[in-house]
């Protein structure tokens, strides 16, 4: 149905990719298709449904118009297949591949350029070492080695490859870029990269993998936890002496294990100093409250953009 609508659906047998809906610019792949191919959900724009719902979302039309479109495509007898009984789709995220992620980190040591950049952002050197920051080189040699060691299909399943439908698969992390491992009990379970391209710098994430919290937590449960909007602010909070979580969205990564780490501790939510950051803080405070976790908001003072920007005025 999606291809018949002219949408860029996930290629081949993939069940996840970028949202194909024309009004959603999905820079971080958030779209999922159920194993039977009859349900879909976008975790970015929060829309979901069956084939008819996809028609309605893609064409901005009502149900009668969607039914007419479906009849023209498959005939009246196929409409029963388009509708799925109401209820949540059973969704299972692909398993992470810590061995692949750990090997990529081994092949991607942090360069002096990377260290200088982090120092320029007032990220403490001890935090850089503790968090095992790496760096993807521009020549993609690390990915060539990974292909030979693990095979392209395994790299694809691990979320490291992308590409256009029907085209070659290519590494999603383009160097030079800093590489941040998301660790749980010392094991890398996800990765995020940030290009070192000056004005063209951007963040890059794994394709089709569950978003997780970026944990920088010590053993001392008496220390407060600062929940920040993104990796850089979490590194900043850790450098200021706090335990920290970096969130890639207000509800991303708040699984039962993460919530258990927050219970009984002083929790502060730190959003960016803009409308989206304040919305992030409000949503996260409400969500924590529903799980019985009391938290306070820390607001970055004006005119600073975020926690990292504010901390840089204290550098040196």
TrEMBL record:
Coiled coil: none annotated. The keyword Manganese does not apply. One of its GO terms (molecular function) is zinc ion binding. GO terms for biological process: DNA replication, synthesis of primer. GO terms for cellular component: cytoplasm; DNA-directed RNA polymerase complex; primosome complex. Residues 223-303 form the Toprim domain. It holds the Pfam family Zn_ribbon_DnaG. InterPro entries: DNA_primase_Znf_CHC2, DnaG_primase, TOPRIM_DnaG/twinkle, TOPRIM_dom, Znf_CHC2. Keywords: DNA replication, DNA-directed RNA polymerase, Metal-binding, Nucleotidyltransferase, Primosome, Transcription, Transferase, Zinc, Zinc-finger. It comes from the Bacteria. This is Toprim domain-containing protein.
């Amino acid at each position: 149905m999606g291809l018949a609508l002219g949408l860029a659906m996930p290629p081949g047998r993939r069940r996840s990719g970028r949202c194909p809906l024309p009004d959603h610019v999905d820079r971080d792949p958030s779209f999922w298709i159920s194993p039977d191919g009859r349900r879909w959900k976008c975790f970015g724009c929060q829309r979901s449904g069956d084939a008819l719902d996809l028609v309605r979302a893609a064409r901005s039309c009502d149900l009668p118009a969607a039914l007419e479109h479906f009849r023209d495509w498959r005939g009246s007898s196929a409409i029963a297949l388009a509708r799925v009984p109401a209820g949540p789709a059973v969704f299972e995220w692909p398993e992470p591949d810590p061995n692949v992620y750990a090997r990529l980190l081994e092949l991607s040591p942090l360069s002096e350029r990377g260290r200088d950049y982090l120092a320029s952002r007032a990220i403490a050197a001890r935090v850089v070492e503790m968090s095992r920051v790496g760096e993807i080189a521009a020549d993609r040699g690390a990915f060539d080695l990974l292909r030979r060691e693990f095979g392209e299909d395994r790299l694809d399943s691990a979320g490291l490859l992308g590409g256009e439908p029907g085209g070659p698969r290519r590494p999603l992390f383009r160097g030079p870029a800093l590489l941040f491992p998301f660790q749980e009990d010392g094991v890398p379970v996800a990765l995020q990269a940030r290009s070192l391209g000056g004005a063209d710098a951007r963040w890059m994430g794994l394709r089709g993998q569950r978003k997780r919290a970026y944990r920088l937590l010590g053993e001392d449960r008496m220390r407060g936890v600062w929940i920040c909007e993104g990796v850089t602010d979490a590194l900043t909070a850790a450098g200021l002496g706090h335990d920290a979580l970096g969130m890639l969205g207000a509800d991303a990564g708040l699984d039962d294990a993460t919530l258990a780490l927050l219970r009984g501790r002083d929790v502060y939510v730190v959003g960016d100093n803009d409308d989206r950051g304040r919305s992030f803080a409000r949503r996260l405070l409400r969500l924590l409250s529903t799980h019985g976790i009391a938290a306070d908001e820390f607001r970055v003072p004006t005119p600073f953009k975020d926690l990292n920007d504010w901390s840089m005025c204290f550098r040196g």
